[in-house]
Amino acid sequence: MIAALAIAIWAAVSRGNGDPPPTTASTTTVATTATTTSTTIASTTSTTAATTTTPAETTVDPEARVEEVRQILQDLYYGWFLAIYNQDEETVRQVIATQRYLDDFRRAIAEVDYPRAPTQEDVVVTDLEILRDSNECLVTYSTIDVSRWLGDGASVTSVNVLLPVHGEWRFGTAWMYRDDLWQQDCEIEPDL
After folding, report:
1. Of the N and C termini of the chain, which has fewer Cβ atoms inside 10 Å?
2. In CATH, what class is 2-18+32-187?
3. Is 162 helix (H, G, I), strand (E, B) or coil?
């Protein structure tokens, strides 16, 4: 079960390699595109319903903004895991911005078999740090914990680069380490 989580989370959050980032800029990043959106996922069905929040409408208070971003991440991850559980490509397209994520989703549904559908309460975002918050991208460094759903140790810490798509934040790219080369990913155009 933990292996299944690792595959699904890895596909969703890690574009960096397994080693810590180098101290020089000698590695390359995988270019993908996405648009900035805030997504709310309906928990009563297998589809997601999006609620648009443009960067101009975001909260100015830093503590309130962190809570907004925490909810955005929770909703995106919930949609991601629910789509994998239901093998629902239409649902996953509401939380991703790039073909690479769609390819990862297709791999995950072939390899992952969750014991039950996730709930929104199963997805917990902790240790959230906003690395960049602009019109072009929303970049976070946080821990995603789904231990309530998949058992002890089911968590991963990573960088998520969210891109705007139709006025909503969606997964663009992800990196394992805070100091990976994610900065260039804010220039990616969504391709879904």
Report:
1. N
2. alpha beta
3. strand
